[in-house]
Amino acid sequence: MEDLIDLTRFAFDEAYREECIAKYERVKKAFNILDVVSKVPHFMGYVQTLATALKEVQNSFKFRSSKGLSLELVKTLGTTDESRIIKGV
């Protein structure tokens, strides 16, 4: 989906942010909201905080899914010894 903006990259990658601003500049009607957000420090701070929080939630789901799948695999193989699963997978 080429039309979507990667919030994490927009928040922390200045080159990517400038590219997004330039692309949006070509299609905007009144003003470039991406440019406004990137130039107003407290708005950019909100975006960075949101991006960080979303990444943490995403990583949390990945961890829980990985652990759940690992437990299911161990049970399927005939053991329920959780200590055999590497923590943090």
Question: What do you see in this structure?
Answer:
By secondary structure, the chain is an all-alpha fold. The protein has one domain. 71% of the residues lie in helices and 0% in strands. It has 4 helices and no strands. Helix 2 packs antiparallel against helix 3. The chain starts with 6 loop residues before the first helix and ends in a 13-residue tail after the last helix. The model has no long low-confidence stretch (mean pLDDT 80).
Quickly describe the structure.
By secondary structure, the protein is an all-alpha fold. It is built from four helices and no strands.
Write the SSE topology:
Blueprint: H1 7-12, H2 14-27, H3 33-39, H4 41-76
Would you count the extended β strands for me? 0
Dominant shape: elongated
Q: Please state the CA-atom Rg, rounded to the nearest Å.
A: 20 Å
Structural class by secondary-structure content: mainly alpha
- Biggest β-sheet description: none
Task: Classify the helix fraction into a percent range.
Answer: over 70%
Please tell me the overall pLDDT.
80
How many domains, in number, for the residues? 1
Residue fraction in strands: under 5%
C-alpha end-to-end distance: 29 Å
What is the ordering of alpha helices and beta strands?
HHHH
Number of helices: 4
Extract low-pLDDT stretches.
none
